[in-house]
Amino acid sequence: MSLELTYFGHSAFQIRSGKHVLLIDPFLNDNPLCNTMAQDVDPTAILLTHGHGDHVGDTLEIARRTNCLVIANFEISNWLQAQGVKHVHSMHLGGEHEFEFGKVKLTLAHHGSQLPDGSYGGNPAGLLLKLEDRVIYHAGDTALFLDMQLIADENLDLAILPIGDNYTMGPADSVRAIDFLRAPTVIPCHYNTWPVIAQDARKWAEMVRAETESEPVVLNSGDVWTLQ
Ligand code: NI
Ligand code: MN
Question: Between the N and C ends of the chain, which has fewer C-beta atoms within 10 Å?
Protein backbone atom coordinates (compact mmCIF):
# COMPACT_ATOMS: atom_id res chain seq x y z
CA MET A 1 0.00 0.00 0.00
CA SER A 2 1.03 3.58 -0.37
CA LEU A 3 -0.21 6.87 0.98
CA GLU A 4 -1.39 9.47 -1.53
CA LEU A 5 -1.00 13.07 -0.40
CA THR A 6 -2.76 16.01 -2.02
CA TYR A 7 -1.64 19.53 -1.11
CA PHE A 8 -4.26 22.30 -1.16
CA GLY A 9 -1.88 25.14 -0.27
CA HIS A 10 -1.32 26.72 3.17
CA SER A 11 -1.50 23.87 5.76
CA ALA A 12 -4.27 21.88 4.08
CA PHE A 13 -3.49 18.33 3.01
CA GLN A 14 -5.50 15.29 2.06
CA ILE A 15 -4.05 11.84 2.76
CA ARG A 16 -5.65 8.84 1.11
CA SER A 17 -4.95 5.46 2.72
CA GLY A 18 -6.99 2.72 1.10
CA LYS A 19 -10.66 3.58 1.65
CA HIS A 20 -9.81 6.28 4.20
CA VAL A 21 -9.52 9.92 3.17
CA LEU A 22 -8.08 12.21 5.84
CA LEU A 23 -8.30 15.96 5.49
CA ILE A 24 -5.93 18.05 7.60
CA ASP A 25 -6.74 21.72 8.32
CA PRO A 26 -9.20 22.11 5.40
CA PHE A 27 -8.86 25.83 4.61
CA LEU A 28 -10.20 25.71 1.05
CA ASN A 29 -12.84 28.28 0.03
CA ASP A 30 -10.98 31.35 1.35
CA ASN A 31 -7.52 29.96 0.61
CA PRO A 32 -6.00 32.10 -2.19
CA LEU A 33 -3.75 29.18 -3.26
CA CYS A 34 -6.53 26.59 -3.52
CA ASN A 35 -8.77 25.79 -6.48
CA THR A 36 -10.57 22.96 -4.70
CA MET A 37 -13.75 24.05 -2.94
CA ALA A 38 -15.27 22.62 0.23
CA GLN A 39 -18.06 21.05 -1.82
CA ASP A 40 -15.48 19.09 -3.88
CA VAL A 41 -13.96 17.05 -1.03
CA ASP A 42 -15.37 13.89 0.50
CA PRO A 43 -13.23 12.96 3.52
CA THR A 44 -13.85 10.13 5.96
CA ALA A 45 -12.15 12.21 8.68
CA ILE A 46 -10.98 15.77 9.27
CA LEU A 47 -8.05 16.44 11.62
CA LEU A 48 -7.47 19.90 13.06
CA THR A 49 -4.21 21.24 14.49
CA HIS A 50 -5.70 24.36 16.12
CA GLY A 51 -8.59 26.78 16.13
CA HIS A 52 -7.43 29.56 13.80
CA GLY A 53 -9.61 30.28 10.78
CA ASP A 54 -6.88 29.36 8.30
CA HIS A 55 -6.88 25.81 9.78
CA VAL A 56 -10.48 25.14 10.90
CA GLY A 57 -11.33 26.58 7.47
CA ASP A 58 -14.38 24.85 5.96
CA THR A 59 -14.64 22.14 8.60
CA LEU A 60 -18.22 23.03 9.58
CA GLU A 61 -19.51 22.95 6.00
CA ILE A 62 -17.68 19.73 5.10
CA ALA A 63 -18.58 17.91 8.33
CA ARG A 64 -22.25 18.88 8.13
CA ARG A 65 -22.47 17.72 4.49
CA THR A 66 -20.47 14.47 4.77
CA ASN A 67 -21.03 13.58 8.45
CA CYS A 68 -17.33 12.63 8.54
CA LEU A 69 -15.47 12.21 11.82
CA VAL A 70 -13.68 15.34 13.08
CA ILE A 71 -10.66 14.89 15.35
CA ALA A 72 -9.49 17.88 17.36
CA ASN A 73 -8.48 18.93 20.85
CA PHE A 74 -11.10 19.01 23.63
CA GLU A 75 -11.95 22.71 23.36
CA ILE A 76 -12.32 22.71 19.56
CA SER A 77 -14.34 19.48 19.76
CA ASN A 78 -16.80 21.13 22.18
CA TRP A 79 -17.08 24.13 19.87
CA LEU A 80 -17.72 21.91 16.84
CA GLN A 81 -20.48 20.05 18.70
CA ALA A 82 -22.07 23.36 19.70
CA GLN A 83 -22.12 24.24 15.97
CA GLY A 84 -24.02 21.04 15.20
CA VAL A 85 -21.17 18.72 14.18
CA LYS A 86 -22.26 15.27 15.34
CA HIS A 87 -19.30 12.99 14.76
CA VAL A 88 -16.44 14.39 16.86
CA HIS A 89 -13.53 12.72 18.64
CA SER A 90 -11.75 14.86 21.21
CA MET A 91 -8.12 14.33 22.20
CA HIS A 92 -5.35 16.32 23.82
CA LEU A 93 -1.62 16.88 23.81
CA GLY A 94 0.45 13.77 24.38
CA GLY A 95 -2.50 11.44 23.88
CA GLU A 96 -2.66 8.83 21.15
CA HIS A 97 -5.76 7.02 19.94
CA GLU A 98 -6.22 4.21 17.46
CA PHE A 99 -8.86 4.84 14.82
CA GLU A 100 -10.00 2.55 12.00
CA PHE A 101 -7.52 4.28 9.66
CA GLY A 102 -4.54 4.26 12.03
CA LYS A 103 -3.22 6.11 15.06
CA VAL A 104 -3.29 9.82 15.84
CA LYS A 105 -1.24 11.51 18.55
CA LEU A 106 -1.46 15.20 19.34
CA THR A 107 1.97 16.72 19.84
CA LEU A 108 3.10 20.07 21.24
CA ALA A 109 2.96 23.22 19.17
CA HIS A 110 3.90 26.71 20.33
CA HIS A 111 1.26 29.04 18.91
CA GLY A 112 -2.33 30.28 19.64
CA SER A 113 -5.65 28.56 19.00
CA GLN A 114 -8.55 31.04 19.28
CA LEU A 115 -11.56 29.98 17.18
CA PRO A 116 -12.97 32.21 14.41
CA ASP A 117 -15.85 33.50 16.62
CA GLY A 118 -13.46 34.37 19.46
CA SER A 119 -14.10 31.17 21.47
CA TYR A 120 -11.20 29.62 23.36
CA GLY A 121 -9.60 26.87 21.24
CA GLY A 122 -7.35 25.28 23.88
CA ASN A 123 -3.71 24.58 23.14
CA PRO A 124 -2.54 24.26 19.52
CA ALA A 125 -1.19 20.89 18.43
CA GLY A 126 0.84 19.07 15.86
CA LEU A 127 -0.36 15.75 14.45
CA LEU A 128 1.57 12.52 14.56
CA LEU A 129 -0.12 10.05 12.22
CA LYS A 130 0.66 6.35 12.04
CA LEU A 131 -0.95 5.15 8.82
CA GLU A 132 -0.26 1.74 7.33
CA ASP A 133 3.40 1.29 8.31
CA ARG A 134 4.30 4.96 7.92
CA VAL A 135 4.74 7.79 10.43
CA ILE A 136 3.84 11.32 9.35
CA TYR A 137 4.28 14.47 11.45
CA HIS A 138 2.28 17.58 10.51
CA ALA A 139 3.64 20.27 12.82
CA GLY A 140 0.63 22.61 12.58
CA ASP A 141 1.54 26.23 13.29
CA THR A 142 4.49 26.39 15.62
CA ALA A 143 7.74 28.01 16.58
CA LEU A 144 10.87 25.89 16.62
CA PHE A 145 11.09 23.98 19.91
CA LEU A 146 13.71 21.69 21.36
CA ASP A 147 11.19 18.93 22.23
CA MET A 148 11.03 18.14 18.51
CA GLN A 149 13.97 15.89 19.42
CA LEU A 150 11.43 13.70 21.27
CA ILE A 151 9.21 13.54 18.19
CA ALA A 152 12.24 12.24 16.25
CA ASP A 153 12.11 9.15 18.48
CA GLU A 154 8.87 8.19 16.69
CA ASN A 155 10.98 7.37 13.58
CA LEU A 156 9.27 9.69 11.14
CA ASP A 157 8.95 8.89 7.46
CA LEU A 158 7.70 12.37 6.58
CA ALA A 159 7.61 15.75 8.32
CA ILE A 160 5.36 18.60 7.13
CA LEU A 161 6.63 21.91 8.52
CA PRO A 162 5.59 25.56 8.30
CA ILE A 163 8.23 27.82 6.74
CA GLY A 164 6.30 31.07 6.25
CA ASP A 165 7.84 33.01 9.16
CA ASN A 166 5.95 35.84 10.92
CA TYR A 167 3.23 33.57 12.45
CA THR A 168 5.32 30.38 12.62
CA MET A 169 8.92 29.35 12.27
CA GLY A 170 10.59 30.59 9.12
CA PRO A 171 12.97 28.83 6.72
CA ALA A 172 16.09 29.04 8.92
CA ASP A 173 14.34 27.69 12.02
CA SER A 174 12.64 25.00 9.92
CA VAL A 175 16.09 23.75 8.93
CA ARG A 176 16.98 23.48 12.62
CA ALA A 177 13.66 21.63 13.14
CA ILE A 178 14.52 19.23 10.31
CA ASP A 179 17.85 18.57 11.95
CA PHE A 180 16.01 17.67 15.20
CA LEU A 181 13.29 15.58 13.52
CA ARG A 182 15.50 13.44 11.25
CA ALA A 183 12.66 12.58 8.84
CA PRO A 184 13.95 11.30 5.46
CA THR A 185 11.47 13.53 3.62
CA VAL A 186 10.18 17.02 4.45
CA ILE A 187 7.38 19.04 2.85
CA PRO A 188 7.04 22.80 3.52
CA CYS A 189 3.69 24.48 4.20
CA HIS A 190 2.13 27.68 5.57
CA TYR A 191 3.90 29.98 3.09
CA ASN A 192 3.01 32.14 0.05
CA THR A 193 -0.67 32.27 1.04
CA TRP A 194 -0.35 36.01 1.69
CA PRO A 195 2.53 38.49 1.18
CA VAL A 196 3.45 38.48 4.89
CA ILE A 197 4.39 34.78 4.67
CA ALA A 198 5.96 34.84 1.19
CA GLN A 199 8.99 32.53 0.92
CA ASP A 200 11.19 31.14 -1.85
CA ALA A 201 10.63 27.40 -1.52
CA ARG A 202 13.44 26.60 -3.96
CA LYS A 203 15.96 28.45 -1.80
CA TRP A 204 14.53 26.66 1.22
CA ALA A 205 14.99 23.30 -0.53
CA GLU A 206 18.62 24.16 -1.39
CA MET A 207 19.25 25.02 2.26
CA VAL A 208 17.66 21.74 3.42
CA ARG A 209 19.81 19.72 1.00
CA ALA A 210 22.98 21.58 2.01
CA GLU A 211 22.45 21.53 5.78
CA THR A 212 20.45 18.40 6.63
CA GLU A 213 20.18 14.71 5.75
CA SER A 214 16.53 15.12 4.68
CA GLU A 215 15.13 15.31 1.17
CA PRO A 216 12.87 18.33 0.58
CA VAL A 217 9.72 17.87 -1.52
CA VAL A 218 8.12 21.14 -2.59
CA LEU A 219 4.49 20.74 -3.65
CA ASN A 220 2.30 23.26 -5.44
CA SER A 221 -1.34 23.53 -4.52
CA GLY A 222 -3.21 20.74 -6.31
CA ASP A 223 -0.16 18.47 -6.50
CA VAL A 224 -0.60 14.81 -5.64
CA TRP A 225 2.43 13.01 -4.20
CA THR A 226 2.84 9.43 -3.08
CA LEU A 227 4.69 8.39 0.05
CA GLN A 228 5.96 4.91 -0.81
NI1 NI B 1 -2.49 29.63 13.44
MN1 MN C 1 -2.01 29.49 10.45
Answer: C
| Residues 127-161: tens digit of each pLDDT | 999 999 999 999 999 999 999 999 999 999 999 99
Ligand 2 center–CA 11 separation, angstroms: 7
User: Could you tell me the residue ranges of all domains in the chain?
Assistant: 3-215
How do 69-73 and 45-47 pair as beta strands?
Answer: parallel
Distance from residue 27's CA to the centre of ligand 2 (Å): 10
Q: What does the pLDDT average to over 19-32? A: 98
Q: How far is the CA of 1 from the centre of ligand 2 (A)?
A: 31
**Which runs of consecutive H residues, i.e. helices, occur in the chain?**
53-56, 59-66, 74-82, 148-152, 171-181, 201-211
**pLDDT of 228 strictly over 90:** no
C-alpha of residue 178 to centroid of ligand 1, in Å = 20
List, for residues 85-127, the tens digit of each pLDDT value: 999 999 999 999 999 999 999 999 999 999 999 999 999 999 9
Q: Is the pTM of this model over 0.85?
A: yes
In DSSP terms, 103 is beta-bridged to 98, 130
Ligand that comes closest to the CA of residue 110 = 1
CATH architecture of 3-215: 4-Layer Sandwich (3.60)
Q: Which residues surround ligand 1, an ion (CB under 5 A)?
A: 52, 141
133 CA → ligand 1 middle, Å: 29
